[in-house]
Write a structure and sequence with these properties.
With 178 residues, this protein is an alpha+beta fold. The protein is built from 4 helices and 7 strands. It binds nickel (II) ion.
């Protein structure tokens, strides 16, 4: 097991769309173990593969951290196929340490994805899990949550984002940021 370095805002891999995963890497099981370990180590609720530098279209999320009745999921090749309603709540991100913002999201979505057993699933998510799924699917589409806030709000955190991007450019990871 290993804690993987988390790429920060400004790293090119976080700002491009990740293509669907056609074939799984041979060491996929180990990658999953490392991603869970990395996510829990940093108190995250979800983690997408490109956040740890992997050009693979999947993410992991543990909804039970917020709601004990829910499970944890591995979501491969996610596509949001419908969305309705709106909710606004505060979000943070392991790739944007020190930044939290109110982010508008759909209240309810239907997601098509593959599970670890290669089954294609269409599942409805609402409330908190819907927010996490949208946040992580955004990552895989090259977007971070600050891309979803108004340009006025973004102007207030411009210097923080600039500082993160400068650190990313000099090869720093989330663990190097205090
Ligand atoms: Ni994130």
């Amino acid at each position: 097991m290993a804690i993987l370095p988390i790429y920060i805002y400004g790293s090119p891999i976080l700002h491009k769309k990740v293509a669907p995963m056609v074939e799984r890497p041979k060491d996929f099981d180990r990658i999953l173990i490392d991603m869970w370990e990395t996510m829990y180590d940093d108190d995250g609720i979800g983690l997408s593969a490109n956040q740890v530098g992997l050009d693979l279209r999947f993410f992991v999320a543990d909804f039970s951290l917020r709601d004990k009745k829910m499970e944890r999921v591995v979501i491969i090749n996610p596509e949001i196929i419908s969305a309705e309603g709106e909710s606004i709540e505060e979000e943070g991100c392991l790739s944007l340490p020190g930044i939290r913002e109110q982010v508008p999201r759909a209240e309810k979505i239907v997601l098509r994805y593959e599970n670890v057993d290669h089954q294609v699933i269409e599942r409805e998510f609402s409330g908190f899990p819907a927010r996490v799924v949208q946040h992580e699917t955004d990552h895989l589409n090259g977007r971070v949550f600050t891309d979803r806030i108004s340009s006025l709000k973004r102007s207030f955190i411009k210097s923080k984002l600039k500082r993160l991007a400068e650190k990313a450019a000099s090869g720093k990871f989330a663990k190097d940021i205090d």
